[in-house]
Amino acid sequence: MVDLNTTKSKIKMVLIGAGNRGRGVFGRYALDNPHKAEYVAVVEPDDEKRAIFGAEHNIPESRRFKASEDFFRKNGKIADAIIIATLETERLNIILGSIDKQYNILVEKPLGCTMEEVLKIADAASRFKEIFVVCHQMRYVAGYDIIKSLIKSGRFGKIIAMQHSENLSYHHMAHSFVRGLFNNDSMTPMILAKSCHDMDIMRYLIDKRPLRVSSFGNLNYFRKENAPEGAPNYCLQGCHEYKNCPYDVQKIYFNENTDPAYIRQMGIVKNNQELFELLRHNQFGRCVFKCNNNVVDHQVVHIEFEDGITGSFQMAGHNYLERRITKLSLTNGEIYFDTNEGLIQASTFAPANEEIIKPAGMESSHMGGDKAIMDAFVDAICTGEKKHIITPVEMSLDSHLMAFAAEKARLNNLVVDINEFESECRKKI
Ligand SMILES: NC(=O)c1ccc[n+]([C@@H]2O[C@H](COP(=O)([O-])OP(=O)(O)OC[C@H]3O[C@@H](n4cnc5c(N)ncnc54)[C@H](O)[C@@H]3O)[C@@H](O)[C@H]2O)c1
Whose C-alpha in 104, 162, 331, 370 is 20 to 30 A from the C-alpha of 264? Predict the structure, then answer.
């Protein structure tokens, strides 16, 4: 049994799911901040990933588990916190097991694959006394934090409308949502898998409840009929179009700017030779026009919030630069933020004034949000002070409702009333 009372300047954690996010982000955090946190156990079904994570964090064999059921059954509470970084298909029982053992919890978004699952989790978590954080790390990004303070200052007046867009780079779209893990709504629709962060940041900045939602969007481009004639199923089977195709795997995965997260999702890949061999047959090597994808490649969502505030959101997967652009119109000013420029332009009408603010600390992964949310989680556990937790589960419930309601609106050509939608979903649990 691990002693939990030694010191609270450093916490002990368990990782469930040592994949891209688990090892690459949450594991990295402990390696970079050994004075704040350490892993004492890991649960991961893949033998190679479990062994590598165990070795990187000096976890003894006896605390490396293949299945969470085993981990919960064999152990009492052996750490201060659990980090859950499995796919969303593997969340519900793991969260309920962690609540049962009274662990502080940080769980990846989205909370589940259906609204019913999310409601079950939110209900269980609302009766829970420990810390429960949903990894909506955008709220912790310095730029959005500054915007929140500008709004709170009152100088800009009341929010009237918000325009927000998520511009996915063409290669991120292809990797994650055409070839990759999140390409099919049999798991999650795009609005949940990717844009639940955007629903969440709109809910957070506007700080009013959403009332009604409408949405349009479709899968326009990544379809079989758009494949070049004669293109093989895999790029590396000798596609004659490889020179012209931006999605050719040699351009996307062997580039000095390739996001390491892309490779981590393929498992443990030791070198480019191994990567090349994998891409001959794994899902990421497929022709982008010949995948089992069905999630949208562009979508708009319109939301009416309390107090008559309107929000509009646009996601598109055809962009050179990956960036989010946010613009708030207020009764005495406007606030504009482009994450690629990394600058906030904030103007008031009276006095007529324009300010340019450069937020600091937006360089590391997810614009600094990943480290910031982990810092807040660890500090809250160490100090017992929850005030820096700005992504508690009850606040995330609305963002999930917005995403699921938007998908219902898109699929059924409806305007969806959020309260009615929540009641309908509650009847099913
Ligand atoms: N917050 C963000 O910005 C952000 C970014 C990317 C992904 N995500 C989310 O993070 C989650 C993980 O994504 P990823 O890219 O790391 O995927 P991944 O497939 O690389 O990692 C998931 C890991 O969980 C393991 N696993 C599967 N079933 C398990 C179980 N029952 N118990 C324990 N481990 C299990 C898998 O073997 C795998 O190693 C997803 O829900 C995704 O939506 C969040």
Answer: 104
